Every structure is written in structure tokens, then in C-alpha cells.
């Protein structure tokens, strides 16, 4: 883990962005606390709390209204997805 001050980070941002790809980088500030610099990959999903809550509520409503699909016993995930695509 590499710990740097916010002043050092500002002066050498490119260096610490590159370093964050392979190491934990913690940026400290007396007035703002500490932060960890984490690279985001293509597989990461960023969603705000309100959007996530709305999606969960909609999923619960869909389930309660019978809009849910269940896998058949012995059905593989590939077979299940194929069946879902064909039912649309």
C-alpha cells in the first residue's frame, strides 16, 4: 500500500493513477480525510442508491404480480436463458 498526501497526489497524479493499477493507493488530507484510489474496470457497474432502490422495488412488484420466471428442475442456465428469449 502506498500512502501519499493530497499535495503529493496533485503534483504527481499520472504517477499515482498508474500505480493504482497494481497497488493500493491511499490519499490523505488533513481537512478531508483519507481516500483510496481504485481503478474502474469495464465489468464494474456504477449505480446511485436511488436508482438501485427503484430497480429493487420494481423487481419485487414484478415478482408479486407473477412476472417472474423460474428454472425448471434439471434445466441448465443456458436452457433457461434460451427459454426466456423464446418466450418474449
Protein described:
- By secondary structure, the chain is α+β, with helices and mostly antiparallel strands.
- It folds into two domains: 2-37, YefM-like fold; 49-87, no CATH class.
- Helix content is 45%, strand content 16%.
- It is built from four helices and three strands, in the order βααββαα.
- It has helices spanning 6-11, 13-19, 49-64, 77-87, and strands spanning 2-5, 25-29, 33-37.
- It has a three-stranded mixed β-sheet with strand order 1-2-3.
- Strand 2 and strand 3 form a beta hairpin.
- The chain is elongated.
- The termini are far apart.
- The model has no long low-confidence stretch (mean pLDDT 93).
Which segments are poorly predicted (pLDDT under 50) over 5 or more consecutive residues? none
Number of helices: 4
Instruction: For the record, give the distance between the C-alpha atoms at the N and C termini, rounded to a whole number.
Output: 50 Å
User: H/E series, N to C?
Assistant: EHHEEHH
The quaternary organization reads as single chain
Structural class: alpha+beta
Number of strands: 3
Count structural domains. 2
Average of the residue pLDDT scores: 93
Shape: elongated
How would you write the strand order of the largest sheet?
1-2-3
Strand content: 15-25%
Radius of gyration: 22 Å
Helix content: 40-55%
Major sheet: size, sense and barrel closure?
Answer: 3 strands, mixed
Amino acid at each position: 500500500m502506498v500512502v501519499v498526501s493530497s499535495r503529493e497526489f496533485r503534483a504527481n497524479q499520472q504517477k499515482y493513477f498508474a500505480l493504482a493499477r497494481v497497488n493500493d493507493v491511499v490519499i490523505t488530507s488533513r481537512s478531508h480525510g483519507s481516500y483510496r484510489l481504485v481503478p474502474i474496470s469495464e465489468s464494474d457497474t456504477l449505480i446511485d442508491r436511488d436508482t438501485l432502490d427503484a430497480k429493487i422495488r420494481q423487481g419485487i412488484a414484478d415478482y408479486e404480480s407473477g412476472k417472474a420466471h423460474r428454472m425448471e428442475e434439471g434445466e441448465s442456465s443456458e436452457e433457461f436463458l434460451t427459454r426466456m428469449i423464446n418466450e418474449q
